[in-house]
Amino acid sequence: xxxxxxRMATALSAMVLGMTILSCICYATIxxxxxxxxxxxxxxxxxxxxxAVLQASAAEPVLPQPTLDQSYPATWTPxxxxxxxxxxxxxxxxTPxxxxxSxxxxxxTSTKTNTPAPPPPPPQPTATPTPFSFVASSHxxxxxxxxxxxxxxxxxxxxFPLAGVQIQYGEVGxxxxxxxxxxxxxxxxxxxxxxxxxxxxxxxxxxxxxxYVLNNGQQASKEFTFTTDPIYANNPNYCRSIDPEEEExxxxxxxxxxxxxxxxxxxxxKIINWSLQSFAE
Length: 281
Hints:
5-stranded antiparallel sheet
């Protein structure tokens, strides 16, 4: 059985090999002679088929159409008109000789006349300022740990007290800060409370004030300005727990400041004395 199978395999292999060789010979023959009879796709056969197809699909010939003559008939040429001869040119008229114009007379240049300037107006007299009747004869200051105030004395030109005089005062730079003291007494004394010590917010800073004398409701002296010191030091809250009387060194070491009113140079009360000038009597 095994021998039969080997024979069949050998026979099949021989057949496949023979057909392969035959196919190669056939294709080689077609390649060398493509127009042999057994080649179904020979070039001659394909050309004949294409020619038959083109002949069958060719359209009927188109007959040429006659062209219409669209030219216009010849136009009749009129008889030429006779051209007239040239017109005789008239003889030129003699131009009269122009009359000589006389040379114009040169107009003299006008001389500019200087108009005199009007004399300047006389200078206006300079107004002489009226001197004030009163002057600040002296001033001083006091230390006070209660209030900030103003006081003083008004005297006449002989140095005697002058009663019935008022002082206008207020804080510089504060709108509406304008007050008037009562009239001076028989000793010429006056006084005003500028800032109460109970107003601690304002009593912790300096203030600048002004004052002048009033005479019949009019300013009678130059304005005198002065600055007052705070009553209380603007210290942090922890300074309140330290008594500066007992622990002054510790008080100062922690950045606390003593009340300004404790200084001998502190200014809480301003004293201004006024005098009437001799020429005003």
